[in-house]
Amino acid sequence: MRPAAVSSRLYVERDSLVHRLPAQCKLLAVFGFVLAVVSTPREQFWAFGVYAGLLAAVALAATVPAPTIARRALVETPFIAFAALLPFMVPGEQVRLLGVGLSQPGLLGAWNILAKATLGVVAAVLLAATTRPEALVAGLARLRLPSLVVQILSLMVRYLDVVVAEQARMRIARESRGFVARDVRQLGVLTRSAAALFVRSYERGERVHLAMLSRGYAGAMPAPHSPRPEAPQWLISMTVPAAAGAVAVLAWAVS
User: Fold this and answer.
1) Backbone angles phi, psi at 96, to 5 degrees
2) pLDDT tens profile 69-86
3) Integer-rounded Cα radius of gyration of the chain
4) Strand partners, 102
5) One domain, residues 129 and 169
6) 64 touches 126 (CB < 8 A)
7) Is the separation of the CB atoms in 12 and 129 below 8 Å?
8) Is residue 74 included in any domain, yes or no?
9) Quick one: 116 and 57 in the same domain?
10) pTM above 0.90, yes or no
11) Which end of the chain is more exposed for a tag (fewer CB within 10 A), N or C?
12) How far lies 74's CA from each of 65, 71, 128, 232, in Å?
């Protein structure tokens, strides 16, 4: 069986300096940036503005459109909803805003979650928009991630479109029989469809595994190719996390 093409829906096709950097460099850069963000005291509001400026500079260098980033960052909506409840749930000194009493510790907690989650999500969005999925897997292998984890990620990326296509065929089959999900009464049908999709995916995975064994698979796959980064590429990649680290240190110094 020939698997479907690797999904690259999150990748934004460009020819920028950021796109050309090796995946392992960008992975470490994102990790270092997020580490600096989460370690910054929440009271140092200016520091988060600097972090946002650094991400904006990366987005401009990568020529990734701002609407694309904003649309994909909506994945953090559950965090926003949780943060919005904190000013009403956390006990502490009250402040009045538009006639409503809000907890000051809750406001700070909400700001802390919202600011750090947003910066982390945008950094991840930029990573996905500038790096192909197969390159990310190869970069993780270069960074000595456990081989089993790399294999799982590689197969997930490779066969994700197969599962999505199977789900689309099941949806078309339901709609061709007059099914339309209008309210919770149709939840049972959707639940059974999800269970059937799981069973079909599991069975397909077994067939893929048997096919791999018949071709000599013995627990290890060929290492994915990833070019070895050059010194200038490491220097460029580490510019943003180094600047973020300096901001975090300064934020702790003045707090």
Assistant:
1) -100, 130
2) 999 998 888 888 888 888
3) 23
4) 95
5) no
6) yes
7) yes
8) yes
9) yes
10) no
11) N
12) 15, 6, 15, 34
